[in-house]
Design goal:
Rossmann fold, 3 domains, eight-stranded mixed sheet, 21 helices, flat
Length: about 450
């Protein structure tokens, strides 16, 4: 997510750390690099101009504390300005006093509305809400079928009337939600390849008929300023409440995230960070600013862990670790919980200082699959007591998992090293993990 921008900003800050004090010249030199990095990330020119001017004003007016280096001071100022640029505070979805809450999704075709509808439904399920997905895109042949497939995959009801009138479908879905005792209606509306009067009028008609509590504009985060310009036109016609940026796991032209709030005045509420239905994050300006500056995002990492990790299992594991009884069954269980949290690369990038180290490294997700296959090929006795794994057993495990004996041996060496490390850890160390998998903690 914006890796190139992060890399260039980190390089600028490294040079600043070499200065003994802040001067107008080294500030100007640094701001030129920051300006260039933002423009290359496809951030709106006017937004960049205002951002750089604001940073310069604050930098020249700051008295550098003795305990803070010039580089650290500039990083803090840039961080604070990024937070302001991204919206300042987290914007939540409004909910209805009397259910159902109606959420209307709009945007151009190909922006990822239908997929996001399912992601939002899954996200709300985790918040103990009961969503209904509504197929109001009657023009794209595969849209209704796609929504039904996604709905089945997350066990969410999908309301559709086939190729009917979108306004009537939207209105009828509210009655359906009340009958089914569902508290949230998520409306997937039609898009076009470009903005046209017919599409906009249809969206206005739907808005006037059902009076949604929340209208979200879904934009492809990889299209840069095109997304910002389209959002501005939608805002003029619909006056939507918030923005969703999809495909933010890529890096191409990701500057839309830094421009869209300043240009439209509408906050970013969610970002899509992958293709799976779980790959959705509520947008937090302060956390995004920290990620952009290479500071990681530990808060989001911990939240992901708390969502996926079984608290009871975590407590049992803690007791085992204290008694040095950790075995391969525990190892496998922790591995599976880490996989539920998302891709390993995305998790590692949330740890401060790790993102820059990973720039040229290839994080091989297949290694996790290989390890899982090896452990699954063991008997219960072998998992609980790895000491019995002699040569013939290891050969059998390698054949059963489609790997080599060397792979089995490598896994066992790593496991033994981990056990030694666990024995050396102070008991208090386990309390600080907050229920996170040992590998992340």
């Amino acid at each position: 997510m914006l890796e190139e921008l992060t890399s260039k900003l980190e390089s600028t800050f490294r040079r600043l750390r070499g200065y003994g004090k802040l001067t107008e010249k080294n500030i100007d030199d640094s701001l030129k690099e920051i300006r260039r990095a933002l423009l290359e990330a496809d951030v709106n020119y006017k937004v960049v101009k205002d951002f750089v001017a604001s940073v310069k004003e604050k930098a020249l007016g700051e008295e550098v504390l003795r305990s803070v280096t010039p580089g650290q001071m500039i990083v803090k100022i840039v961080h604070d300005e990024l937070v302001r640029l991204l919206g300042g505070t987290t914007a939540n979805i409004r909910t209805a006093g009397i259910p159902p809450t109606i959420i209307m999704l709009t945007g151009l075709q190909g922006s990822g509305k239908t997929t996001f509808a399912a992601k939002l439904a899954k996200y709300l399920q985790k918040k103990n809400r009961k969503p209904l997905l509504v197929a109001a895109d009657v023009y794209r042949p595969a849209a209704i079928q796609q929504l039904k497939i996604l709905g089945r995959s997350i066990n969410v009801l999908v309301y559709d009337e086939g190729a009917g009138d979108p306004v009537k479908i939207a209105f009828n879905s509210i009655s359906q939600a009340r009958q089914q005792m569902l508290d949230t209606v998520i409306l997937d509306t039609a898009g076009r390849l470009h903005i046209d009067e017919q599409m906009m009028q249809e969206l206005v008609n739907i808005k006037n008929r059902i009076r949604p509590h929340e209208i979200l504009f879904v934009a492809d985060g990889m299209t840069g300023q095109d997304a910002v310009n389209t959002a501005q036109q939608f805002a003029e016609k619909l006056n939507f409440d918030g923005v969703v940026l999809t495909k933010m796991d890529g890096d191409a032209r990701g500057g839309a995230a830094l421009s869209i709030k300043a240009i439209t005045g509408k906050p970013i509420k969610f970002i899509g960070v992958g293709e799976k239905v779980d790959d959705i994050e509520q947008f937090h300006p302060d956390r995004m600013a920290s990620r952009i500056l290479g500071m990681g995002d530990v808060v989001t990492l911990v939240e992901k862990a708390q969502e996926t990790i079984d608290r009871e299992k975590a407590e049992k594991l803690e007791k085992k670790l204290r008694k040095a009884e950790f075995d391969l069954e525990d190892f496998l269980d922790q591995l599976q919980q880490i996989k539920k949290m998302g891709s390993l690369e995305s998790l590692l990038k949330m740890i401060p200082g790790v993102g820059s180290q990973l720039k040229n490294a290839q994080v091989d997700e297949k290694n996790l699959v290989r390890v899982e296959a090896i452990i699954n090929s063991m008997t219960n006795e072998e998992r609980r007591n790895p000491r019995i794994l002699n040569g013939s057993r290891r050969k059998r495990i390698a054949m059963g998992s489609g790997t080599r004996v060397q792979d089995v041996n490598a896994l066992m060496r790593q496991f033994e090293q981990m056990k030694k490390m666990m024995k050396q850890m102070n008991k208090k160390s386990f309390r600080g993990l907050g229920g996170m998998p040992f590998g992340i903690g």
